[in-house]
Amino acid sequence: MRARAPLRVSYAGGGTDVPPYPSLKGGVVLSSTIQNYAYCSITPRPDGMVSVSREDQDVSTGPERLTELKGSGEVEFVRAVAKRFGVEQGFDADLRYDALPGTGLGSSSALCVALIGAFREWKGTSMTDYEIANLAYDVERKDVGIPGGLQDQYASTFGGFNLIEFKKDSNIVNPLRIKRETLNELEYSSLLCFTGTTRRSGGILQRQIESYEHKDSRVMEALERMKELTLQMKDSLLTGNLTEFARLLNSEWVTKKALDSAISTDEVDILLHAARESGAIGGKLLGAGGGGFLFLYCEPGKQVHVEKAVERLGGKAFPVRFDLEGLQTWRSPK
């Protein structure tokens, strides 16, 4: 049984999806998935033992009984998902990422979604996309205890461009019908830039939670402003106004930085400045902050200039290709 789940780019609204804010004020996020994935392959084995391997790092754990399997990170995900599905048989779990966790692309959540997809395929369990996303959230945030918001699991499961609304009693994924020419132009003009550092978002998120629990006016105003910008960015995509989209991307980044002083770093600021000086008209750091990937929207014909500028400073630029399918599962040929 195999599965892949796409990573995501969050354009606006990230932070409004972090509990308890959505149940109190309502959150909204604009995101898309990209053709970079987390992969999972589950192979049953007859001896009741379980092993977990990272194909991209040549690291493995086990074989051991599931209850005796030791390890953190991916091993915790495997244990938690297997427990949720009531798995008693042995299996090998082979995992890999196209981008490491801690880079702001939702890699951990995508892996959790892929694991659920593979186990669902193995067990023949009927699940809706909403049920998969909800389970992935519960596994990652509650069972494993990784702090974060709600958006990543929904983005990876559903795929494509979505406006995702988070409320007290429901979360709604609204697929966006964006013109193909707009998508083509957005791909053509966009870059992902790895800053060279990963980050641990737990501290930033915890401070954000404490700030709005104490009704910090600066943070509360920033979150409300981010929701306004998210809806405006959605409109700019639907109308094909990518210049306006880039302008709003900059506004969203300025607003997001008001949530916590550690969201940006000197290195991030230097890279963004160099990118803008070389032809990027919109840009922001993805994820909770502190490191990972930048998303950059460039003037037509300026992508190569931007790429060279960030790489001179130690960054690494990559093209953007959108995924419109979300979670995919299949059985390998015999």
Describe this structure in words.
The protein is of the alpha+beta class and 334 residues long. The protein folds into two domains: 2-177, Ribosomal Protein S5, domain 2 (2-Layer Sandwich); 180-323, GHMP kinase, C-terminal domain (Alpha-Beta Plaits, 2-Layer Sandwich), CATH 3.30.70.890. Helices cover 41% and strands 26% of the residues. The strands form two sheets. Strands 1, 2, 3, 4, 5, 6, 7, 12 and 13 form a nine-stranded mixed sheet that branches. A hairpin with a 7-residue loop joins strand 9 (280-285) and strand 10. The mean pLDDT is 92.
Q: What is the third-level CATH name, the topology of the largest domain?
A: Ribosomal Protein S5, domain 2
Contiguous helical run count: 11
Q: What radius of gyration results from the CA coordinates?
A: 20 Å
Domain tally: 2
Q: Biggest sheet, in brief?
A: 9 strands, mixed
Overall body shape: globular
What fraction of the residues are assigned to beta strands by DSSP? 25-35%
H/E element string? EHEEEHEHHHEEHEHHHHEEHEEE
Mean model confidence by pLDDT:
92
Secondary-structure-based class equals: alpha+beta
Mind telling me the CATH class of the largest domain?
Alpha Beta
* Unreliable stretches covering 5 or more consecutive residues: none
The CATH architecture classification of the largest domain is 2-Layer Sandwich
Distance between the termini: 11 Å
Helix % is 40-55%
Structural descriptors:
13 strands; alpha+beta; globular; nine-stranded mixed β-sheet; four-stranded antiparallel β-sheet; Ribosomal Protein S5, domain 2; Alpha-Beta Plaits; 2 domains; 11 helices
